[in-house]
Design brief:
This protein is 28% helix and 27% strand. It has helices at 3-7, 33-48, 130-142, 153-166, and strands spanning 53-55, 65-70, 73-86, 89-93, 103-107, 110-116, 122-128. Bound molecules: nickel (II) ion.
Length: 171
């Protein structure tokens, strides 16, 4: 194991347009040590890349698992769902699978979600502002949706061109 693998949990963050990012993830049904270790590694990878959230499909695992860490609070989101939402917020959003890309995305200002932890216990979390944005962004990943899907075709095409340039033309 290289030094880098220890720091980032041994998980490689996939970049758009990796096909895993467009696939719908499966619900988690088994809550075992493997799941707990995977969640630990997701947090490690997220922190290694200075992210505020990371979802399993971003590391090629098509399971409904995501982590969020913002404002000193950490959240494990397994099989998450939105229970309630209010208001609207406008703001810039980025994603570890789209390095250097930020775009304006409209989201609810407040959400109440329900999610399981690594033991399978259910919790409800309320998120306001950027926390709400992070919850919804990660939950989108679990449904095969990425933030540029909210943009106009014109803006999306410009971002795809920029990404292709950044990665030396690999589509
Ligand atoms: Ni993302």
């Amino acid at each position: 194991m290289s030094e880098n693998e220890i720091i980032d949990g041994g998980l490689e963050v996939l970049r758009y347009p990796n096909p895993a990012l467009k696939k719908k993830s499966e619900p988690v049904e088994v809550f075992d040590d493997g799941l707990a270790k995977f969640v630990e590694n997701l947090f490690a990878a997220m922190r290694a890349h200075d992210g505020v959230g990371l979802a399993a499909p971003q590391v090629g695992v098509l399971k409904k698992v995501a982590v969020v860490e913002y404002d000193g609070k950490s959240y494990v989101l397994i099989n998450p769902k939105v229970i309630d939402q209010k208001g609207i917020q406008e703001g810039e959003e980025g994603c570890l699978s789209f390095p250097g890309i930020y775009a304006h995305v409209t989201r609810p200002q407040w959400v109440k979600i329900e999610a399981q932890d690594v033991t399978g216990a259910a919790h409800t979390y309320e998120g306001e502002g950027y926390t709400a944005r992070a919850f919804l962004h990660e939950m989108d990943h679990l449904n095969g949706k990425v933030f540029i899907d909210y943009l106009s075709n014109l803006k999306r095409t410009a971002i795809k061109k920029k990404l292709a340039k950044n990665t030396g033309g690999h589509f």
